[in-house]
Amino acid sequence: MERAMEQLNVQLNRLTRSLRRARTVELPEDNETAVYTLMPMVMADQHRSVAELLLNSKFDVNYAFGRVKRSLLHIAANCGSVECLILLLKKGANPNYQDISGCTPLHLAARNGQKKCMGKLLEYNADVNICNNEGLTAIHWLAVNGRTELLHDLVQHVSNVDVEDAMGQTALHVACQNGHKTTVLCLLDSGADINRPNVSGATPLYFACSHGQRDTAQILLSRGAKYLPDKNGITPLDLCVQGGYGETCEILIQHHGRLFQTLIQMTQNDDIKENMLRQVLEHVSQQSESHYQKILTGLAEVATTNGHKLLSLSSNYEAQMKSLLRIVRIFCHVFRLGPSSPSNGNDMGYNGNKTPRSQVFKVRKVYDVRKNDVIGVKETGFKEHANIYQTSPEQEPLELLWHSLDEWLVLIATELEKNKRDPASGANNITSILLKQREVDSSAASVVGDNTARPQAITPASQAQLDAEVIIEAPEAYADGEDVISMTANRLSAVIQAFYLCCSCQMPQGMTSPRFIEFVCKHDEVLKCFVTRNPKIIFNHFHFLLECPELMSRFMHIIKAQPFKDRCEWFYEHLHAGQPDSDMVHRPVNENDILLVHRESIFRSSCEVVSKSSNEKLKQGIAVRFHGEEGMGQGVVREWFDILSNEIINPDYALFTQSADGTTFQPNSNSSVNPDHLNYFRFAGQILGLALYHRQLVNIYFTRSFYKHILGIPVNYQDVASIDPEYAKNLQWILDNDISDLGLELTFSVETDVFGAMEEVPLKPGGVSILVTQDNKAEYVQLVTELRMTRAIQPQINAFLQGFHTFIPPSLIQLFDEYELELLLSGMPEIDVNDWKKNTEYTSGYDLEEPVIKWFWEVVESLTQEERVLLLQFVTGSSRVPHGGFAYLMGGSGLQKFTIAAVPYTSNLLPTSSTCINMLKLPEYPKQEILRDRLLVALHCGSYGYTMA
Amino acid sequence: MSETYDFLFKFLVIGSAGTGKSCLLHQFIENKFKQDSNHTIGVEFGSRVVNVGGKTVKLQIWDTAGQERFRSVTRSYYRGAAGALLVYDITSRETYNALTNWLTDARTLASPNIVIILCGNKKDLDADREVTFLEASRFAQENELMFLETSALTGENVEEAFLKCARTILNKIESGELDPERMGSGIQYGDASLRQLRQPRSTTAQSKQQCSC
């Protein structure tokens, strides 16, 4: 009874204690339950509670639990519960107990920087040298996190400071990777091996460089670290360049001057990312004037060697060309950063003939002075053609290359000249055939007659043969000359491209170097010969034409003769040059960059948002959202251009007037009725330019003459036909007939209706009193045409072009004629069902043989042109087909063909679409009639507006 | 990664058309005789890393066209060459007679310190010899040239010609007569001296032993 009472009392006591402390007061019997009771207390370092619970308990303090099999001592060390840790150690916890990954409590304390715990563990003889399963010891953990102070305490207990983990990495390796300077110093002071390689041969310096740890690299190098490559031959410098770590490179170069040359040689290496290397060279060049000059000279030398290799016919053209252009680009980049760059203000007195970079190549000059007495001999010895290089003979290393280029072009010119002198007349052809015949004969003879059989057989067989050789020498050279031109044209053109780059980087932006212009003029004939033989050269190498209108005109006729497609590619390549990964790449859209427009006031709201956006942002990409709708993406952008372009020609704004045929438009000469008209014209120009920039089509067709205005081509009287065919006929009549005796009484003036009032406008000064005669009628027709077509709308055209040119440079658009411009802007107006069908893909169960698909195309064929446009708009968001047809349909991320996907049919279900991917989701209709019906309902109701499907 | 060498030398191969310059280069680089040899157009290029006197040297060799019409082009490649092989054909006196012109070009247009070795090629065609060894070696002596008779066909003395030239340049560098740091010397430093060969890794067993004390 009493016993029972006592027990009850104990229990009651326990109950009150437990309730008061809000926890159990006695440990459960089994270790597993007990440990989970204790764990939270240990974590919170509630050592009194833990002590109380452990008192009189049979709990095994070394009990390992959980997934990683840790003891409570691990937990305490990990959390820094120092009191509990002491308690557990006193209770006999094993300080070297390893969890499933081999970690001891000391490892965990070290990893988390639990200083006191570490101290206590060491007091209780924790072994600092134990490795976990990955071979990591406590000092590795301290080194990873840069806990220098703790390391300092610990390292004295360590028997081997160079202890390696499974990868052969020491604490010093990891400290270097993470750039913990003081830790590195501490380890080095403790005798860590500074050149220790890991399993792959990477040293501490290697790691510091691979992670761009400048200060650490500095420490290592000043302590005498060796410059060692890993087992694959990758050096610390390679790593710095790969990572673009300019500062670390600089440190390496400071300690090992020879690496300067190596760094520059790396520009030839195709494997290295150009931007990284450029970044490094940029940094190093900015360290001092002498670095800057040394880098430029070095780059110039490498470029020259590569240029010369490119001019060696046996070298790989593609690789050598890329290499040369890469080096020259980097050269120009570094050059522009320098004090002598034109963008830095000085040296504007560029005189065209001389290389102005005197200060850059000071080093060189000293040498040249010495050299000059020798060159003097040369110049009297053989004074060749007076060339533009003689003013600055070989002042900089690159001049050598330009000199070679010049000599090559002169050589080609000589070969061309020879061609002209010996035109391929019948006689000559016979000689060359004879020559070939003879060659065959003689080689046969030499095989027979001479055992050594040298291919270049100079063996004088007979006097007769020698004579023959002398006679036919000229035609041989001629045939050879053709070869020389065709074999070198590409290579020389690539060097010309490099020459242009170098010339331009010495000029202020937007100016063509007089030296380069002079060069092109000098070699005009050869260059024309190159591009006539292989027009691809223009697109591949003669980019300078796009930047130099004065040179472009020389080649325009050749360029215009190239296929439209090639010119399109060139156009876009240049339009997007310098834009980081153009619009084809999906990137997250910044909420602020979304153009939010209202469907009801599309014109005004678009004008507002576009004028608020920066042109650069608009070039990078457009994201449009309609107010109150969720849809976004390429489909919406396309729809926006489509509707907006329709709005631009809305007669309510009076900006554009319809031409006679009713489908094309041109600026309204009376647009000033809209007071803001010029701003709107600029906006219209921007939208058109933007659409062209992003390869979006617009839903406007302009008059031929307006396309000409965009291109800057003069109009002629025939263009009048598009706005006033009757009047054009009259002009034609005047031109075709003798007007002397007709008594037309025409003067050089025109009456124009300006809002109801007739005004007489002179065509030229004093025109009202100049009669039109048979002699001057052509001038009259031209002037009257210009008045109708140009002068009347000049302010509008100017405003439009101002907007258009913000996105499309005039030099680029002039690659096209007015017909091509229409194709570029508006795509093909007609829908070719066969082409459509041919370029359609099917997914999720459909294929061409499926009855539903067969019905679908039958339905499409029966649709009117307008309905087809609706269908196209429903699926792609635009009513237009790109030029080239359906094969070139664009989606959100590049080419995206029209696609039809199957959807299970339920009654009354309508087709839906995803405009981003040009996908029509077509239910599996049981009958053609139902399909047709549902499709038409969808088209007529659903081709506008986006909601998430 | 980038090639390792102590020095890079720019070399020229010059001489009249048909003396076998390209074949010499081909033999040196590929160790084979080039059967289907055409006239060189402009300048060709080849390179090989050789070991000379304990140093690794990369030879960057420019093989020039011998034909007169390319003369102005090939001259523009001379600048900054450290060494040259001046080649004539022992079976053609004409090519031997032209040597003076080639030599003047090389001495004036390339570096004034250029090291030149005279090569009498086609040694294998001794039967058709038009230039004796003796007169050529006298010419070489008068003009301070090294001299060898070579055969691009058999490969005789080809390697030697290039190596001898390289060794002389190296000696001049070591004696201080040539300064690789000077622009236009035709010599560049590589980073081989920095990349010391790694000694075999200290045995891990040993460190383990130290570890478990």
TrEMBL record, chain A:
It is found in: Cytoplasm; Endoplasmic reticulum; Golgi apparatus, Golgi stack membrane. One of its GO terms (molecular function) is ubiquitin protein ligase activity. It comes from Lepisosteus oculatus (Spotted gar). GO terms for biological process: atrioventricular valve formation; cardiac ventricle morphogenesis; Golgi organization; heart looping; membrane fusion; negative regulation of reactive oxygen species biosynthetic process; ubiquitin-dependent protein catabolic process. ANK repeats lie at residues 68-100, 101-133, 134-166, 167-199, 200-225. The active site is at 916 (glycyl thioester intermediate). The keyword Cell membrane does not apply. InterPro entries: Ankyrin_rpt, Ankyrin_rpt-contain_sf, E3_ubiq-protein_ligase, HECT_dom, Hect_E3_ubiquitin_ligase. Residues 614-949 form the HECT domain. It catalyses: S-ubiquitinyl-[E2 ubiquitin-conjugating enzyme]-L-cysteine + [acceptor protein]-L-lysine = [E2 ubiquitin-conjugating enzyme]-L-cysteine + N(6)-ubiquitinyl-[acceptor protein]-L-lysine. One of its GO terms (cellular component) is Golgi cisterna membrane. PROSITE patterns: ANK_REP_REGION, ANK_REPEAT, HECT. Gene3D superfamilies: Ankyrin repeat-containing domain (1.25.40.20), Hect, E3 ligase catalytic domain (3.30.2410.10), Hect, E3 ligase catalytic domains (3.90.1750.10). This is E3 ubiquitin-protein ligase HACE1. Pathway: Protein modification; protein ubiquitination. Keywords: ANK repeat, Cell cycle, Cytoplasm, Endoplasmic reticulum, Golgi apparatus, Membrane, Repeat, Transferase, Ubl conjugation pathway. Its EC number is 2.3.2.26. The keyword Ion transport does not apply.
UniProtKB/TrEMBL annotation, chain B:
The keyword S-adenosyl-L-methionine does not apply. GO terms for cellular component: early endosome membrane; insulin-responsive compartment; plasma membrane; recycling endosome. Its main location: membrane. GO terms for biological process: protein transport; Rab protein signal transduction; regulation of endocytosis; vesicle-mediated transport. GO terms for molecular function: G protein activity; GTP binding; GTPase activity; metal ion binding. PANTHER family: DRAB11-RELATED. This is Ras-related protein Rab-4.
